[in-house]
């Protein structure tokens, strides 16, 4: 599946250890820098208005510092929560106390969400125990999202819902073009197309996938402000083919000059293509040994057809 999702070029493979190092370094100041992630979470939450769901257990996969758990707890105050992330540094910042009004519910108390350190491709969670799996801007950090989607399918109960977002191909298109002009080495990730993510959902076993996308444009005073924002949110380049040494002053100078061509009304734009997706876990059609499941509901005696 990796072929149709990302170009067949190992330079653009994402290095897991580099991503971990980047996000862990950013953990302490992440909440102040994650303006886009919070806005995407808010818009993602609005899409929950379109579904009928009263989840008992909710997992946030790639929870970071846990901000989305608080957002979800306001919507579903009776649910139990698990935040999962592969960065211990992020989880240490995620002391998520759920809203005070939980105390007003029968048996309610404002306890913390459970925090679990683990990989999206190997979730440390029992099978079929979650009602809602939520993942905000995490899947694009994986070389291939399919194993993670299969894990999300595994931990969901039947009729459970997966909701996720990821960055699409037009993300940071201005920065990508400027670097291509200045340096042959890759500097900006290639993100996954919405249709490929939809196909991956079906391959992972999900049903009724719904995909959508929108463009969000942030603007900056300067090129350095954009690069600082990416660094503070842990979103630096983690490509296998990136330049291993320091990028030279000449390259940076050419990139800055090229980016100035995008300036409008005194501001520099940065485009983010945000892909939204949700899908349901259907009842299985067969058991593990391959035998089909047949539902047989005999008519009651005397009941007319």
From TrEMBL:
One GO BP annotation of this record: methylation
Q: Which domain of life is it from?
A: Bacteria
- Pfam families documented for this protein: Methyltransf_11 (PF08241)
**Looking at the keywords, is Methyltransferase present?**
yes
The biological pathway it contributes to is:
Cofactor biosynthesis; biotin biosynthesis
Q: What class of enzyme is it?
A: transferase
Enzyme Commission numbers on file: 2.1.1.197
| Reaction it catalyzes | malonyl-[ACP] + S-adenosyl-L-methionine = malonyl-[ACP] methyl ester + S-adenosyl-L-homocysteine
Span of domain Methyltransferase type: 59-164
User: Which keywords appear in this protein's UniProt record, sorted alphabetically?
Assistant: Biotin biosynthesis, Methyltransferase, S-adenosyl-L-methionine, Transferase
Q: Which SUPFAM superfamilies match?
A: S-adenosyl-L-methionine-dependent methyltransferases
Keyword check for Transferase: yes
Which is one GO molecular function term here? carboxyl-O-methyltransferase activity
PANTHER family associated with the record: ARGININE-HYDROXYLASE NDUFAF5, MITOCHONDRIAL
Q: Which family does it belong to?
A: Belongs to the methyltransferase superfamily.
**What task does this protein carry out?**
Converts the free carboxyl group of a malonyl-thioester to its methyl ester by transfer of a methyl group from S-adenosyl-L-methionine (SAM). It allows to synthesize pimeloyl-ACP via the fatty acid synthetic pathway.
Know the name of this protein?
A: Malonyl-[acyl-carrier protein] O-methyltransferase
